[in-house]
Fold these 2 entries.
Entry 1:
Amino acid sequence: MIGLASAENTPRPVTLLLILVIIALVSLPFVGVNPYILHLGFLTFLYVSLSSAWNILGGFAGQVSFGYSAFFGLGAYATGILWNAGVNPYLTLPVGALLALAFSLLVGYPCFRLSGPYFAIATIGIGEAMRVIMLNLGDITGGASGLTMPTTGGFSKTPSYLSALLLMIAVLLLVNYIRNSRIGLALLAIKEDQDAAEALGVPTIRYKLLAHGLGAIIVGIAGGLYAQYMFYIEPNNVFGFNLSISLLLMPVIGGLATLWGPVLGAIVFVVIQDTLMASFPHLHLLTYGLLLVVIVLFEPDGLMGLFGRLARFLRSRYAEGQARAPSGEQSL
Amino acid sequence: MFATRAVGLAIVLMVALTVGALAGCGAQEPAGSETDSGAEPAEGPQEILIGTVLPLTGKESRIGNYQLDGYELAIEQWNEKGGIYVKEFDRRIPIRLISYDDETDQAKTVSLTERLVTVDNVTALLGGYTTTLVFAQSVVPEKYGVPYVNGGGAATKIYDRGFKYVFGTLSPIEILAKTEMDFLKEQIDAGNLPKPSTIVLLWENTSHGKDFQAGVRAKVEEYPDYFEILLDESFELHASDFSALLNKVNSLEADLFLVDAHLPDYILMHRQYTEKGMYHKFITYGARGPDPAAKDALGAATDYVAAAVWWTPDLPYPQVQQFNQDFMEFTERKYGEAKPPQWYAAVTYEAARALFTAIEQAGTLDRDAIRDALDNLVLEPSILPGQRLTFSDSGQALNPFVVVQNMPGGETVIIYPEDAKTGEPVVPVPAK
């Protein structure tokens, strides 16, 4: 079995810690915590899932896409439209995922023939085109007026919280699997040198489409959960360029092509936003921007790279201490 | 091994960050607000906490700050009296406003409203601005059963969701459009405009704009001999260029230029309209026209632009004159210079007064009792047209509109209805 703990050779204490954290998170809604904690939890799980999804293609394969908001919006609108038509909102999630998958294949095939900045520019165009199209499909999407979800079923946060938690765990298991499988190796090979990978027999387009499709499925489901939770969506928000940028920034800050980097990036994003937004509205953007500049300049591997350095430093200090200890005993 | 240690450190940091954030939101006990436990001291809370989330920065910051001024003025005036009299505690309790800035962002407005209710534990909420943001944030008060009164959302779609806790002081946009059309019919009858008058109808692609379109179309259907629509087209909210749309308009020789736009779009569109040397016998941007920001930006180009508004400082009621004076004194204290009163602040001032009156009438800080009091509220004398504020079954006020027109020299006069007139309309507007 490939679990969260095994892939990065996580030792038993860390595995136990992870299990405890998951148990604690699952039990939160049932111990009467402040609803705002569940709100923050929902957002955190959602952002972790989104940034991990982006990391599959952007981190492992090095293909920088600015168009993931299109998948998010498709998932959100699939849920919004079908829920309003009387379909159970949870049954709408696979529909949103399939729509996002179909769209990812449709745009991925031509776009993956481009590389580097040309690919990134093409994805910006696709994301913005989707936003404008949805704004003008007023009869289906409600246009800029947005779409309101049915509120007859009540407003309990617990189902959304647990669904987002479940999605996050599933996404982390999937990323863990990818990282330790042939897929992960192929994607890393594409990132290192696409031509060389091709020459070695890696079907690069197929693997990139696979990574794009998996990311789209996750983001589509996340969009559906967002619509269920917010009860209101509109194209400028769910297809917005800001969302695409946020999805990219989180893994970059946390650490690309790692399992825990996007998780850390998402948590830092939500925590910084929540801590500073109420008191200093623009400071969270400044803080995030500064963090990004520092990471790009000094630690391209993100916060995970920083922790790696810290771990090495602590280890070397510990080793030095161990080396000095016997001589001290001798002097006694 | 290094990677393992890095993972360990990362997990520890993640847990620490999360615990820190969660502890932060759980620890804030409101200073004297009502709590769920109901374990209040017999003398009651020291303050009544009221929350609001407004766009204080971003695209709509200018209006967001105006709306905040309206709320703050009302609170200052009530606190000068000692606060709201709450019968349950037999004393006046001061009001404290907690305001957050959503940066004109939908996700943030929801998050911050959620925070006001669950972390700050406010007794009631005052609403935000624009229709879209009010749409998004008003789900939160309904979710938690918190009374919510706004002065920033006029679209009927906000109120037709069957929500019980959402109230608004802005009358429907459809009535706004119909009021302008009634005025135009009167002008046609007076021979100032041709019969039928041809219309170019442009509206922002939002529920706000759709309501405007519906109002115009309803009147065109009601008076088919009076009006004929040549162009009926929407545009994107906060657009960056209207040249193509205006070229299309210019190719038609319409009599009436009827637009529904928010302030930034009004300023941009009218700038481009003026640069192209366009002319129509009557020009309106819905509720926008007399805004000082537009007059500052466009100068004499705003002359003769008409608007149907929820409120104007020229309303001939003594309470309006008092409000004008109070508002200018308040802004002078706050900003060091007096700001002219605008409808954005007047409607939020009334929203706050409505809420505080309802709390007083409820005689308790129980949220359901306050909601019931809002349902039955009759606020008289109100500073809004009609001098009486009540909420319909849907929660939306149904006050009449007044039509105003900018005159050369920066003056704005009320031109409709007859009993509120402070000047004569200039229709058709003179060609420049």
Entry 2:
Amino acid sequence: MIRDITIGQYYPADSLLHRLDPRVKLLGTLVFIVSLFIADSWLGYVLAAAFLALMIRLSNVPLKFMLRGLKAVMILLLISVGFNIFLTDGEHVLLEFWIIKITWEGVKQALFMGTRLIFLIMGSSLMTLTTTPNQLTDGLETGLGFLKKIHVPIHEIAMMMSIALRFIPILIEETDKIMKAQMARGADFETGGLIQKAKALVPILVPLFISSFRRATDLAMAMEARCYNGGDRTKMKPLKYETRDYITYVVFAIYLALMILVGRL
Amino acid sequence: MIELKNINYTYGGGTTQQIHALKDVSLQIPDGQFIGLIGHTGSGKSTLIQHLNGLVKATSGDILYNGQSIYAEGFSMKGLRSKVGLVFQYPEHQLFETDVFTDVCFGPKNLGLDAEEIRARAREALDLVGLDESYDKVSPFELSGGQKRRVAIAGVLAMKPDVLILDEPTAGLDPKGRDEILDQVAKLHRERGITVVLVSHSMEDVAKYVDRIIVMNHGQVAFDGVPKEVFRHYQELETMGLAAPQVTYIVQALRAKGFPIGEDITTVEEAKAAILQVVGGKR
Amino acid sequence: MGIIKASKLIYEYIKRDEEGNPEGVNRAVDQVDIDIQPGQFVAILGHNGSGKSTLAKHMNALLLPTEGTIWVGDKDTSLEDNLWDVRRTAGMVFQNPDNQIIGTVVEEDVGFGPENLAVPTQEIWKRVDRSLEAVGMTAYRYHSPNKLSGGQKQRVAIAGIMAMKPRCIVLDEPTAMLDPNGRKEVIRTVRELNRAEGITVILITHYMEEVIEADRVYVMDGGRVVMEGTPKEVFARTEELKGYRLDVPQVTELAWELKKAGLPLTDGILTIDDFVDEILAIHQKSGK
């Protein structure tokens, strides 16, 4: 289950999307998310779907892989859909008993909300799937470089993000090992009430925290030994816009314009 | 007695490549044996031991513990895990309590024993690994690598298992620490008659102690026999990324040059005796 | 003067109890004198807790001496201004392969060091190419480090240091967490770098079979250097080594045992070939 989370994972492949400048992808993702909130009609969603489908196609990431990532956020999705169905008031009542009232508006709202969420997750995971964490942080660092002027430590934030992303898979694996080691000592993570279950987590969390701290000190030392001081650095892969990046910006602009237009209809 | 019948285990599939980690493995582990389980990383040995206490479920095949299928409905996995104790490679993965004694109590506590029995078992387990009362109140995180490993082993011993499986108990220890742990385990086996399965990369480490070696390669049992039988295949072992103890190579090199020495020598002591028999010494 | 030289080096740290109050002073490195010549392959042996890792961290100015001095490439590490020169001269590879790789792609990790040194982009690429080539990891340059074996990860870490063009590499127990194949892989790589590139190598380890081909061996115990010499000289003192919680290869052990039993063998036999030759010579003589 925990392994199914694809957000933040990188899918190595060679595609147009993989080659794009991360700043383009970051802004593109932002544009896409904004467009989802502009869309308020079926036509808008169809357009967004078509655009998303095109991007997935261009990314060479298997659709199956992306859908698997959705599974992990299913609960969140169901909750928000549920809220919309049950809590939206409207004129066209479809079903009513006791205190529950389901209206056509609610269903519509829920469908929109569900689609929006799915698209949002797929859109943003498409970005992380096609961008290495390093590129991503580079993109953020350069793209948000102007924030440095107001003393936001953007390089440090970017570095922290990239390290976090590198260690997520390692820590997931480690959690698995710790769970097994404790299960071998008769630990039970499945039965019992909420409090008992929470208590059962202690034997997992303590070793995990201790190991994480250890990793952090080790890593800090390794970075220091490699002359890292956060100061003047050059880049192995400096970000440079290519023609395809400019074209993509234009494509995104057209897309956004279309979405606004459709929204106005 | 643990009996594995045609165990297969596959994982992955879907978008990733399917991996066949265990292929039709059949084995018997009778009570009281001291077994060395050898294989390089990815040979399936770690997967195999996790089958023995039900942490990983076979894709097909059956495992019998004292004649009972562990996959049968109503079979208590918790009960099995207390009888087939598994100590993982890194003690850091299981130590979590504020002091050594409480940490060792974790296993028996999970078995639902009463407080007195829990304490008695923890004390006994710590004695078995050679840690006296002076360690009881020490934080497990302040111990040396070798001591941590002892506490981890005690944590499993406190459940009074019939079978003790140790996954590379000597990794990262210095030579003396390695010998101390292995001697302790050998003593346990000798004095308690407990069945021991020692997982290792190193033939040299296990040759001295075990009475049976199982070699895993590509998810299958490649060799299974007494050490000297297995080491006879030293050339095949090399193709599996393993090596016989250095002493095997010494003996082979001597034989190749016409020195009259027997083939089945697996330890330094045996080699010493055999060479002295030929050339004579003071004693 | 050698590339790394320590004189009366002492490192002490304050032991604290649970509340953080000082309990006493622990001396991890005690009066160490070493002098390592450029181009040498030096091994520092010792059991866990003998102070060998603490000493290693001084060679990279990760720790600074409490007393005494250590010079790396003529620079006193205790002077703040020398810090980056010291780290550039002596690169450091650590024990846990996972905890020293920063990049999420192999080649990006190798580029991390040169980036920190503000090396121009084109030059970084050249160095990354060369370093990956030197450790034989070019085929994996686009891979994620998480998918590599332990030995491969350590080779990436070594490439990451090589890309900084140090004169000297200090490896702090690089094989302790590896399986035998990974261990061999790393040692072969390091030896090749020493031979082909003339890099000074300082290998910290407790695996005796890794030091057989070293030019010089130091043995540490209780923070002190207790033995020093060529591998042959050091291994000749088998009993003493055992006293320091260390071990000798089986062939050395066997030769030593036979010698104790009265066979006229030379001290510190390190290879099977030498052993076989000597035994055969004895056999022929006794046969006559």
